[in-house]
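Quick check before the chapter quiz. The format below is the same one you will see on the exam, so make sure you can read both the input and the output lines.
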Amino acid sequence: MGFGYIDLSAISFWVLAITGSIYIISILTINMLIPVIARSSNVENIQYEINSIKADEDVFMTLLRKQPRYEVNKNTSRILLGNPDANLLITVFSNPHCNPCSRMHKRINELLEQNKHLCVQYIFSSFNEELEISNKYLIGAHFQENGEAKEIFDQWFEKGKFNKEEFFKLYPVDTDMPEVGIEFDLHEQWKEQSGLRATPTVLVNGYKLPDNFKIEDMHYFTNIEI
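Here is the expected output.
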């Protein structure tokens, strides 16, 4: 081979080799992806079927009525969010200082944005006498008429509960109002009567929410009467 001579046969070989490799890799990749795509499609179909079943009111009611039931109505606690005239009452037994309860509050906000025909009721319990002031604080925030109740609840569950004294200064609330004491006692009485201790516990018109349902699933329903 002299200077300046290009071996076209060698170039052709490498072009063919590279082209062939790309083709083989493409085929192998597609073959590998097909089962993944098929599984993904199956998962989506299964999830769709599950959601369809969950959205069936008769199915939900049948499962709900098999759950433990607790005596509760809109007079049990006047801490009501959403639509107070709704037939469907979601009661949340909540601890102002528990992290799962904080996450539940955020989920409740999202649920109420999706469905305007729900009423969510809070019943508070700290299970600690030193923290009972937090129950009274949130109750008082709900009863005061300055429009800050939602902001206080949201900020409390997001970060305020970690330093309650500083939070109390940031959002002053009169916890000595007579209605605060009355409401606090109602929550305590219901806790003792129900025997519930786990927080958050979600009830739907008094029935414990079935384990295979999440509170988000309540957005399917608007006018359930139990």
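If your answer matched, good. The helical segments are 8-54, 57-64, 99-114, 132-143, 149-158, 164-170, 178-194.
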